[in-house]
Sequence to fold (432 residues):
Amino acid sequence: MKKVITYGTFDLLHYGHVRLLERAKALGDYLIVGVTSDDYDKSRGKINVRQPLSERMEAVRQTGLADEIIVEEYEGQKIDDIRKFGVDIFAIGSDWEGFFDYLKEYCEVIYLPRTEGVSSSGIRSGDSELRLGLIGTATNVDKVARECAIVNGITVSGKAGDIQDAEALFQDSDAVYIFAPPEEKAVLIRKALENGKHVLAEAPLAADTALLRELTELAGAKGLILMEALKTAFSTAYRRLILMLKGGKIGRIVSVDAACTSMQEQTAAGVANGLGSLHDWGPTAMLPVFQLLGTDFRKKQLYSLNDPVCPDLDAFTRLDFIYDSAVASVRVGKGVKSEGELVVTGTKGCAYVPAPWWKTDFFEIRYEDPSENQRFFYQLEGEGIRYELKAFLDAVNRRISADGIEKNVTEAMVRVMEDAKEGRDRTFLSGI
Ligand code: CTP
Fold:
């Protein structure tokens, strides 16, 4: 039996794909199709794929041409597969001419002429673009604008620095990105939703739980997406880490410890919210705690030291969470320096993410026997903003909430910050 193998993303399956599969199949008796995983595509810079792996695999299955469908997950897998399945022919479109000649050592390599005039990218670019208005300070908005240029399907409809300009922006936009101090942010989110616009707003989404509920309900009633921008949640390494740990890689999790500090001064947004380091770092620092241990903690206690320049704001806060059978402790600081690492303790091993863990491309799973340790690297491009924008676009296109941050996690973060502001479960030590 002659076995043929081919690989591709097969996004929005089109005529060119089907013709490729037909010709590949005709080269032998048994066709194996490798469909690239979402993470593998992202790691090789292909972030614009519209359909998730399951849908792309299903589309290939429905052609009835594949005898076997596998997932391609890593660089170098082709050699592994060719050996494992005893493949005779590797076939691929002529856009890859010469690129896979190194496989000739293992099997025959055939480049099939690419079908002219059709491609997934072409189909994607024909889709209607999401017109995104950017509201916020110039530095922030410019950074997001640069990333929008990389994400297929989003065009920047304009920029606004304040509420007056923002209103004009609504006319030309389908959605808005908002970076603003809490009160202004609340007004802007409400106005955007009332005007029928989807919203992507920097965390924390709201200053208190009542407001969060109101805005979430408004978005729901209007059938709009309201998503929190917190780039760590969308970075590949972080997401992989969370999935791995939830899958039991280090056994049962007993402790999560993290620190997020920076030497910058307090921000205007923090001042307006009456919280310092807790405002700027709280959502990021609490993210792994709530995503790994859930939000049903039994008790919490915060210890804060006030800022010498802005005595109403915390320069440093330690947040302790007590669960039924786990604990977590995170430290946040502005004008205070700590080692910004994340350590997750489990019954079989631990996970270590070096500083700055919130924008990492690397983590290590460590065991008692160091020879079993495993290191994982994932490319992080654009600080994770482009992945966040892509998640937002997918959420808008599919009208489902984005898969980065669970609703209960957002709620818990807002609840902790609201309690902190009201002084609940919080001890103030004498300032710095
Ligand atoms: N292919 C083809 N003719 C086309 C498009 C794709 O023969 N018009 C082949 C590719 O050469 C490859 C396979 O189909 O062997 C899967 O390609 P894939 O990269 O998934 O499709 P593209 O349409 O090229 O996707 P993109 O535009 O995102 O690069």
